Amino acid sequence: MSRLLPSLLLIVIGMITPGCPGNGAADIDPDGRPKGDSECREDELDDEEEDDGEPWWPVDVGDAEIDVAAYRIPPRPDYRGLPRKVLAFYYAWYGSPTGPGPKEPGRTVWRNWDLHVDRSITRIPVTKHYPAFDPYDSHDPAVIDQHCRWARQAGIDGWVISWWGEDRQLSEGGYEDLAMGKVFDGCRRNQLSACIHYESYVDPIEPQTVIEEIVSVLKRFGRHPAYLKVDGRPVVFVYARAIDTLGLLGWAEAARQINRAYEGGAVLIADQFSWPSARIFDGVYAYITAPELTERDPASVRLWANANYGNWVELAERTGRISTLTVVPGYDDRNVREPGFVVERHGGEMYRAQWEEAIKADPQWVLVTSFNEWREASQIEPSKEFGRRYLDITAEYARRFKQRPREPLRLPPLSVGDNETAALREKLERVKIAVLPNAQSESIWWLVNRVGVEPDLLGWNDVAAGKLQTGRYGILLYAGNEYYRQTCVEENDVDRAIGQYLASGGALITLPMKPIPFYYSQDRKEVNSAGKFGIAIKVDWSQPPEGVELHFEQPTHRLPHLPRRMRFPGFGEKVWRPFVQRQDPGYTTLLELRDDTGTRLGDAAVCAESPQGGLVLYAWFRLLDDPRADALLYDLFNFIVEKAEKEDKSNY
Fold it and tell me: Which domains does the chain have, with CATH numbers?
């Protein structure tokens, strides 16, 4: 394999992403929510900021040194024996002009209800429904007690309370923070549990900020008798935007430090169903599934849930994490967003369908979105329109869920055996892998934790300075987002260095977190440099055609550990960026997308030659969210190594 190093492989794979300028505007955020904050605040409703087109996910094209140890996941407890629970997302951000909640000087308002509540006609302009309790103040102990009683009657064991940070202005999260003690005390009085839903964000966000905020709030409330705990450790749900803004590598470090700084540690649960999240966090969940449910009837929702719930439980079970599934009674945010979208309630049948499929999938916890998010009309709290209907439905299914004995999930063994993984490790150690900065897709976590390879982590300055040489590295891995540093010293010096590496026959593997690698430069300009390196990606749809069943097929079965046919993702980002097919001997289709009529819609995984002469391997960014990601990565890496070896021998 001495001349394997001169053959360059580029693999492009990734995770969930928002749309980006130039490659189609997405309608939902990477966690499956509509664009914008799922829980917009009162000040956003009154005066929403203009969208300047800048992404809110992190743009890190710096050259900070990172050790491979940052990617090693420390041993975590195995949570597969936890008892069942039903939890509901709860909001303590409501205020009234005469209620006990704090007031801003000179401003007496209906906080987070609307400026124009009209009790005489039971109308709140920003909500679709009207609370049976009348618009209330979340700081009122009587309100908290009534909510706790309703929750108990519905079979809810605890609340996941929206929390935006401490020491903030009232309009920036301080109002909710000041209500937390009252809510925990109310839960204690009523034998209910509660924990925080960490939604705080600052710009720029850094691991130390997250560590300090979470440790601080846990020191205030983590030992409260009502705080939800697992094995004596307080639970923190982490909202998707907080994950995306810090990044998975940042959260891996934050989790380590939180568990050191807070005595006994904490249980962190991520709002993201992905393999890296399941590695880093103690559990995984989805706050909102409503974007997938819009325009569906209960029968269609049942099919959708049946196709997805099992995969999410399997993800948690395979990694020993806490498994959760989310049920949503309905959704309608058109009064607070433009254009917004709707999930019809269908008289409660939509809710029942999700509950029934969740019980079949057998998670440890079922999450209800939500108890009282009135502006998105996802609440089960009694209302003028529905009375107690959704409390009663919740009670019915919570009882069935908890009464069902939980059997150990019988998972088929991973298709890639330990011996095969060890053999691949030996090959990759001989080849030697270099990794470009900001690597966070499943590929890097898989290499370090599953395969046991320790690649060299290069900086952009290292690349520009000539450290990227075929005699040193056989594979160059790109596992970041759509941003990269195009210039360090001289204009486009990084591009030239990668091009020279390809020209000398090196192997570049690109496994990005976002749809198109090398798309933005360090100054946020659209440069779309992927084509320079032979990554010919077509800009196609942001959402698949309605009513069309999609699947991947292997035309040549070059990926032996994968089935010949795989489902297209049913949740999250579905933006489609196929590789542009070429008719040349060096081009191999590994996976292609087809519809239910057999029509070919493009290549999802490809091995091809770059214009400079190296090899490129592309795989559509969502493939790594599949339950078979382990098999996919093994087959892709093994394929390229064997292909390069074969070409190497043919040169003699």
Answer: 58-64+416-650 (3.40.50), 82-403 (3.20.20.80)
